[in-house]
Amino acid sequence: MSDRPACRLLDITRLVSRVGRGPMTGIDRVEAAYLDRLRHEDVPLFLLCRTAYGFLLLRGSEAEYVFAALGAPETLPSPGLINRLRGRTSPRLRLEAGLRTRALARVPGGGLVWMLARRLPRPISYINVGQSSLKQKNLQRLRRVPGLRITVMLHDTIPLDLPDYAGIGEPERFRAAFDAVLRNADLILCNSAATMADIGRHAGAQHPPCLVAHLGVDLPRPDAHAIPPDLDLMPDYFVTLGTIEPRKNHALLLDAWEEIIARMGPEAAPRLLIIGHRGWKNEAVFHRLDSAPYMGKVVHELSDLSDPAVSALLAGAHALLMPSFAEGFGLPPLEAMALGTRVIAAPLPVYGEFLGNSVIYADPTDSYDWVNKILELTGGGRGQERAETSDKDHPALPSWEAHFNLVLSAV
Fold first, then answer.
1. Which tens digits make up the pLDDT trace of 163-173?
2. What span, in angstroms and rounded, lies between the C-alpha atoms of 75 and 94?
3. 241-244-248-250 Cα dihedral, nearest 10 degrees
4. Topology of domain 224-391, per CATH?
5. Glycosyl transferase family domain: from which residue to which, for each copy (predicted)?
6. Angle 270-272-275 (CA atoms, 0-180°, nearest 5)?
7. 7-212 — its CATH code?
8. DSSP string spanning 23-64?
9. What string of H, E and C letters represents the secondary structure of 313-338?
10. pLDDT-derived band at 365, boundaries 50, 70, 90
11. Contact in structure between 17 and 92 (CB atoms under 8 Å)
């Protein structure tokens, strides 16, 4: 941006939609990081939230209220008479009700241009990192606000690359949002060079300027006391982390563990912890998780752990296993590296960009390759293995400070 903005306008629609839905996803964390950082900058911050009843404009200081709601959704107020009469009492609606009482202004969709032009000083830097509110009509309205510049972060193009693995209707929705960004954004933020290359491949020659800004890695804060006390972690265990969807390739890990159990027996086999909520289009895997005889004994499915518990389990694992067919940024391997935990992963471009040869790579289509590399890690003493891991030269982990130093000079 050639001129310093008079204010920044951060879209928090995604964060508001996630309240009460358990641990935050990677994109949620990015939006939360932006909200936390921008509220402390010397450029005035305002917040925009799209709700069922239109748009809310809020002061940046309301970030404190949003973070409090995310941490304790049970403290939120009633969702309002209309929603109560309709039987709609979700945490999201309750948070929206609370934000309406705190808003500087609220308008139906058609009043967005008037509200922003009347209420905000110009030039305005609109920032959307949550990939919400990216419909063509919303971005066109923003374009009509005098002196407003649109910056959008695209985290990946996976719904276009692997449409068969996406949720129902997701490839079409993403394509519409992607095209709207290409037509209306002034700048696209990319979390990696791999993502920027994917955007260029789908966009062709004509697209807005892109800026690669690696996301920061928050230092995990393990809390062993948060681990369920009845969880069987002996003799040794591995972790896989992420939504249980076809792209994450949990089927390969179940195949690998069946082979490991056949070789070693259920008592001696290392444990596998599958951490994440169930997603979509994965009925065959869900059936195995529900009915396989090794479930709850050798393999454990864990869906409602706190972040400190997840970090503690990751810190104590022999390795993090990531056989995904595609990733946008790949945050879990970076968090594992920060904890000194080994990573076995599919050879994806984004992993090569960040982690180089510090990761053990395995073919995501070959379960025997994974079996052999997993068993190689369990062959030696744990203390010796940890010492070897800590002595390795790991790449420097990306930081939020470096990310914002780059981004805020442009927006």
1. 988 888 999 99
2. 9
3. 90
4. Rossmann fold (3.40.50)
5. 233-378
6. 155
7. 3.40.50
8. S--HHHHHHHHHHHHHTTSSS-EEEEEEETTEEEEEEGGGHH
9. HHHHCCEEEECCCCCCCCHHHHHHHH
10. very high
11. yes
